[in-house]
TrEMBL record:
Catalytic class of the enzyme: oxidoreductase
Residues at the catalytic site: H199 (proton acceptor)
UniProt keyword Cell membrane present: no
Ligand binding (NAD(+)): G31, A32, G33, G34, G35, I36, G37, D57, N116, I139, S140, N141, M250
Annotated NCBIfam families: MDH_euk_gproteo (TIGR01772)
Name used for this protein in its record: Malate dehydrogenase
Documented EC number(s): 1.1.1.37
Keywords: NAD, Oxidoreductase, Tricarboxylic acid cycle
A GO cellular component entry from the record: mitochondrion
Quaternary state and interactors: Homodimer.
Domain Lactate/malate dehydrogenase N-terminal, first and last residues per copy: 26-167
Catalytic activity: (S)-malate + NAD(+) = oxaloacetate + NADH + H(+)
């Protein structure tokens, strides 16, 4: 009951799941047997916008599917082993990719690059071949690089639509809301912080000044909060003592963003949330991808919103974000060109 009630609260306006979705969809999880994939699959089973849930991994997916399929919601769950990737993707409208290796103590997201880049590249190629019209939600880190990898692979295949490729940065939004609410003694569901930039360390820029609870923060308190939002994942890695990274909170964030995409595809209006996409906001600085508030709809990305007014502190954070983000993006593009 706790997981179901938590997942229902998925939008910036805290709108509940509809029990009579306008249009239900097939969703495929690539990496369903992993630390993120398993709880993500459970949460997606609870989503009434999901008619068919297709679970794939190189190991364990059929078992996860059998387990999750016993949950008493209407969607049909099917698990696919390593040699059935194409079957898992057939007819899917939304693909969520949490596949990859987790962070360990002392590792940065960038340390994950070589292994996860290859995994994401190969999965993106399969999506482009089998389900070229699918919306792709990338969780695999480092997102600042893996989203460009997916985009480049799809471009090579001739099926790229920038409106349908998303980097899931929702965990940054979730953390910002939770951490600020602790300080402001407010309801986290009413303390929604726009978080822009990218999805690692200094590329994460929380716009705390854009809501009442964050306007008065300054000095050491502000700096500590920003650092905690930017490096919140390190808390989990350290606390798990080598046993994993942020899997449960990431699964929640991934399911929350997937639900937002599905609601947009079903025709719901006014769904706005940060996500890392092909963006014109900083093209003049050579930065092709950026996370900002994005309106979702039947075509995926419908509108990319400007950042709005920034405080002097946020201007400094953005200044530090951009060169690092540009390097991350170029690293992903270079990986595909050299593959």
């Amino acid at each position: 009951m706790l997981a179901r009630s938590a997942l229902r609260n998925v939008s910036r306006t805290n709108r509940l799941f509809s029990t009579s979705a306008a249009r239900q969809q097939k969703v495929t999880v690539l990496g369903a047997g992993g630390g993120i994939g398993q709880p993500l699959s459970l949460l997606l089973k609870l989503d009434p916008y999901v008619t068919s849930l297709s679970l794939y991994d190189i190991r364990g997916a059929p078992g996860v599917a059998a387990d999750v399929s016993h949950v008493d919601t209407g969607s049909v769950v099917t698990g696919y082993p390593a040699d059935k990737l194409d079957e898992a993707l057939e007819g899917t409208k939304v693909v969520v990719i949490p596949a990859g290796v987790p962070r360990k103590p002392g590792m940065t997201r960038d340390d994950l690059f070589n292994t996860n880049a290859s995994i994401v590249r190969d999965l993106a190629a399969a999506v482009g071949r089998v389900a070229p019209d699918a919306h792709i939600l990338v969780i695999s880190n480092p997102v600042n690089s893996t989203v460009p990898i997916v985009s480049e692979v799809l471009q090579k295949a001739g099926v790229y639509d920038p409106r349908r490729v998303f980097g899931v940065t929702t965990l940054d939004v979730v953390r910002a809301a939770r951490f600020l609410a602790e300080i402001a003694d407010s309801n986290p569901q009413e303390t929604i912080v726009p978080v822009v930039g990218g999805h690692s360390g200094p590329t994460i820029v929380p716009l705390l000044s854009q809501l009442e609870q964050g306007k008065g923060l300054a000095g050491e308190g502000y700096d500590k909060l920003v650092h905690r939002i930017q490096f919140g994942g390190d808390e989990v890695v350290k606390a798990k003592d080598g046993a994993g990274s942020a899997t449960l909170s990431m699964a929640y964030a991934g399911a929350r963003f997937a639900n937002a995409v599905l609601r947009g595809l079903a025709g719901e209006k006014g769904i706005v949330t940060p996500t890392f996409v092909k963006s014109p906001l900083f093209e003049d600085k050579g930065i092709e991808y950026f996370s900002s508030n994005v309106e979702l709809g039947v075509n995926g990305v419908e509108k990319i919103h400007p950042l709005g007014p920034l405080s002097a502190s946020e201007e400094k954070l953005l200044e530090a974000c951009l060169p690092e983000l540009k390097k991350n993006i170029e690293k992903g593009k270079a990986f595909v060109s050299q593959s």
